[in-house]
Amino acid sequence: MVYIYLNKQNQNQENLEHRLIQLTNEIITTNKKLDTELHNIKKYFVVFLIILTVSGVIFLYIFNQNQTFIEGGHFVTQPLIGDSIKTGFTWHLYDKERVFHIHIKNHAQVSEQSLDMIKDSIMSKKIIEVNDLQLHKGPATNSSKFYIGWNGAINEISSRELKHQLPTRFHVHESMSDEGDVTIMLVDERNLEGYSGYTRSMVDQEKGQILKSYIIIYEANKLDGSKMANIVRHEMGHALGLQHSTDPDDIMYQKIQTDNPYISECNLNALESLYKGKKMSEFICKK
Ligand SMILES: [Zn+2]
Ligand SMILES: [Zn+2]
């Protein structure tokens, strides 16, 4: 009996041992399972982070796109209202026969040929017609006029009823004297702010009257004649009372970058409106 009992005890112990091995195995398997799950969680977390980063980048991109669109919105809506040109003060010439003196001080000693091109930007009566489709301003059936010189441009509107007399008789010549209505100085010096040209007008604020204008063309010795003529054409617009245009394709835009650097219909219409009395105002271009 004792033997049997012992045997039974042995068997029990064996069973226990077996159970212990089983439990250890189970623990190892569970641990392994936990390990895999932990690894999976880490994997999911990394994937989640990547998705979060990518969607963040996409969101910022779309947001910025939207912002650009909002900022650029005025390019879309602008043509509907039209570009505009600001106006300043006017000359009060009173007499139609009054000669308007423009003197050129050639400090930079630019060539005769360049001087002729500068004079042309004031004196020319030449008109160019450009297709509106090419200008992105309308259908191919329409065209726009451009004027090479201010004299020719003003001729178009001088017969109209104006409040202030526009200069119609221009006298452009070289002179080292400061006399004259407009003095154009061609200098070698570079403008520190990077301007190619600058116009400063003496005005009677109360009357809104321009008394005298000084135009400076910087680094004139380095500019070719046609470029200089474009700058003078722009600066003469200021000397006559126009300010800048919002249209990047206009000669009166703050930077000359147009393929047609000539006096536009809008420049002329703005000048007409200014000399009809709309000083320090904003003229909306018709196209
Ligand atoms: Zn003179
Ligand atoms: Zn300007």
Structure keywords:
287 residues; alpha/beta; Collagenase (Catalytic Domain); 2 domains; six-stranded mixed β-sheet; three-stranded antiparallel β-sheet; 6 helices; 44% helix; rod-shaped; binds zinc ion; coiled coil; metal-binding; zinc ion binding; transmembrane; Peptidase M10 metallopeptidase domain-containing protein
Care to describe what's here?
The protein is of the alpha/beta class and 287 residues long. It has two domains: 1-71; 83-284, 3-Layer(aba) Sandwich (Collagenase (Catalytic Domain)). Helices cover 44% and strands 21% of the residues. It contains six helices and twelve strands. It has helices spanning 2-71, 73-81, 112-123, 150-157, 225-240, 265-275; strands spanning 84-87, 90-91, 99-106, 127-131, 143-147, 169-174, 182-186, 197-204, 209-217, 242-245, 263-264, 282-284. The strands form three sheets. Strands 2, 3, 6, 7, 8 and 9 form a six-stranded mixed sheet that branches. The protein is rod-shaped, with a radius of gyration of 40 Å. The chain starts with a helix and ends with a strand. Residues 65-79 have low confidence and may be disordered. One zinc ion binds at residues 101, 103, 171, 173, 180. Residues 6-33 form a coiled coil. This is Peptidase M10 metallopeptidase domain-containing protein. GO terms for molecular function: metalloendopeptidase activity; zinc ion binding. Pfam families: Peptidase_M10. One of its GO terms (biological process) is proteolysis.
